[in-house]
Each structure stands twice: as C-alpha cells, then as structure tokens.
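Async update (no meeting this week)

Hi team, since we skipped the sync, here's where things stand on the single-chain job. The sequence we agreed to prioritize is pasted below, unchanged from the tracker. I ran it this morning and attached the output directly underneath so nobody has to dig for it. Comments welcome in thread, and please keep replies under the output.
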Amino acid sequence: MKGLSFLIALFLSSLINAEITHFERGVGLYEQRGKDAVGLRANNDYIDQSIHQFLKAMKVPESELDAGVYLLKCYYYKGKFIAENDDEKKENFNEGKFLGERLIDRYPGSAAAHYWYLVNLGSWSEIYGILSAAKEGVANTMRKLSNKIIDIDKNYSDGGGYFMLGAVHFKSPYIPFLLSWPSDEEALKYLSIAYETGESTPNQTVYLARALYKNGQTQKAISLLSSLLEEEISESNKLEDIDQHNIAKEQLKEWE
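Output:
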C-alpha cells in the first residue's frame, strides 16, 4: 500500500508540474539565481535554465512581455555576476540591449521594458566606455527614456525612472557642444527623489551617497553608506546587495 501511495503521489505531482507554464518555471529558476554562488560569481545553471524557459514563454502572446522583461533581467544578471571577462559581459548586455529595443518598440507603454532595457544599455556603455557611448548618443537615449519611465509609472521599481535619470546625470561626461546637460545638482535632485520613492535600495543608496559627496555634503554621504552597511543582505537579491555593500566599503575607505 505504501508503494501504491508513493506512485499515486508521484503521478499527481507530475500532473501538477505539467500544468506549470514555461514562464512560471522561468520565474522559479530566476528566484534561485543566487543559490550556490561562490563570492560574487553566480552558478550559471539557474540563469541559463531560466533564459531557456523565458525564450519559450516569449512565443506565447499572453506572456511575451512579462517573459521578455525577465529575459532582460537574466541577461543583466548573467553579464554582471556570471561573465568572466569584458567580452562575455558585452555579449550578455548586447543581448539585453537588442531585446530591450524590440520590447519598447512593441510595448511602448511598459515601464518595466523601458527600465530593464536601460539597465542593460547602461551596463553595456560602462564596458564599452562611458565617453565613447556618450558620443554615440547613449546618454541622450537614457535621459529621454528615463523621463518616459517617470511619465508611465513614477513608482516603478521604487522610483526607477528617477534613479536612471539621476544616474545618467551623475555618470555622463560634460562634452561642450555635444553633451551639455549633465549636472551634479540634477543628479542629486533625481537620486534623492528615487531614494524617497518606495523602498530605498542599496544601489540607490550608493548612488545618492556619491552624489551627496560630489555636491560637498561629505558627512551626510558617509553617514548614508555607514547606515547601509548595518543593513542585512537580502536573500532575494543576495549578490546584488553584496556587490553594493562591497562598493560602499571601498567608497568609505577612499573618503575617510
């Protein structure tokens, strides 16, 4: 009887699993992305399998957008925490860049598609070279689409549009006659709004602290990073949080 019960349970389990969509499988795998990581190097199995599921899910019209957004997250994560060199990073961020361009063209009203496209585009530009990317118009694109995210949903990703707008002001070089709008004051303004919108994230905290320091508010910047280091690392964003904590530690050493 015990053997029969086990077979029945196994059969019922297979039926339940059969009903799980590719999208749901992909989400489940993505949520395990930090599992079995060594330092800041993630186990690629979870992300690779997640990408495989989301590519299938994108073929279903009802899940195309949501699966596409998760794919953008996967490509960013793979480039950030799995790629071993700049060429591999570029390859993954390029995947996100090209997919993002398709998604925002197909779904112009999606804040998520625009936001995660910019995450990949900004990461790509850092590897490619901020100055070179700025000369090719990347900074202008990021500024324009950051404002669009704010127009669509100012609360998306805890003020993600404001964060992107502040970050592009902060990181973009001033180039006379080509890129004259980057402003330290505007960076501080928008990064502050992002920090105060929804739940402040470690990434937002680090950027805001840097903007405060750049605008002469040294003690406030140091206090902000010190407070961040007292916070616990989240399980859901484990490697992302560890990365920002490490940046905060190095930044404090440099300032102090």
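Quick observations from my side:
Residues 86-106 form the longest helix (21 residues).
The CA atoms of residues 211 and 217 lie 9 Å apart.
Reply here if anything looks off.
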